[in-house]
Amino acid sequence: MTCPCGGFGAAADRQFTEQIAARDLESYLTKGPGRTTRLLRDDLLRAGPVDGVLLDIGAGIGALTFELLEAGATRAIDVDASRAYIATASREAARRNCLETVQFICDDFLGAAAQIPAATIVTLDRVVCCYPASRPLLEEAVKHAERLFAFSYPRDTWYVRLWNATLNGKRHLTGNPFRTYIHSAAEMDRVVADAGFRRVSRRGTFAWSVAVYARTTSESK
């Protein structure tokens, strides 16, 4: 699948450059996964078992994918709209000798969802904030989850909103079309629950929340 050349893909390329991807990979290799990635990994392991196929939406440099493959996932599908992230993650997968285990898709998940198969586990780490509306993304993402669904998102607090507005203001001044958004946790929780999942954990940091859900219905994909 070719990378998107306009719309969300162009904005993602402008924001997540080769320099950003290289920085993120170096941080992962020297310091380990970031806080939300660690929380997602650990809470999924508690809700586990972590096996089967992982669909990592907005996978970035692949940190969560590599962590969950080491934890027991047998195969992964990584989707990201940034060409730099996909290229960096692919090189790291090759270095880890797991390139055949991971399918990389460079596209906006919402545009490619119909061609992406269901997975045992679906994750979105710091992804929902990249979309102006959370419902279409979450509805499509949770449809793909057979057993576990997990995502991280900015906390809806005044200081996070202030920081987000500052970042978006800087992007506007530099001509960067990429924007980030704060969404209601209660509304997002309702979307996932309405799809047949119950929340089994929710933890957070000063600025981020991490939630893990397990399917409660017998619906099969």
Describe the structure concisely for a colleague:
This protein has 221 residues and is α/β, with parallel strands linked by helices. Helices cover 44% and strands 22% of the residues. The mean pLDDT is 93.
Description of the structure:
By secondary structure, this protein is of the alpha/beta class. The protein has a single domain (8-155, 184-207), classed as Rossmann fold (3-Layer(aba) Sandwich), CATH 3.40.50.150. 44% of the residues lie in helices and 22% in strands. It contains 9 helices and 7 strands, in the order αααβαβαβαβαβααββ. The chain has helices at 8-15, 18-31, 35-47, 63-71, 83-95, 109-112, 134-143, 158-173, 185-194, and strands at residues 53-57, 75-80, 102-106, 119-124, 145-154, 197-204, 208-215. Strands 3-2-1-4-5-7-6 form a 7-stranded mixed beta sheet, with helices on both faces. The protein is globular. The mean pLDDT is 93.
CATH fold-type name:
Rossmann fold
Question: Which CATH class?
Answer: Alpha Beta
Rounded mean pLDDT score: 93
Number of strands: 7
CATH superfamily: Vaccinia Virus protein VP39
Strand order, largest beta sheet: 3-2-1-4-5-7-6
Overall tally of structural domains = 1
Give, in order, the helices and strands.
HHHEHEHEHEHEHHEE
Fraction of residues in helix: 40-55%
Helix count? Answer: 9
- Most strands sheet: 7 strands, mixed
- In percent terms, what proportion of residues is strand? 15-25%
Unreliable residue stretches: none
The outline comes out as globular
Global Rg: 16 Å
Q: Would you identify the CATH architecture?
A: 3-Layer(aba) Sandwich
- Roughly how many Å apart are the termini? 23 Å
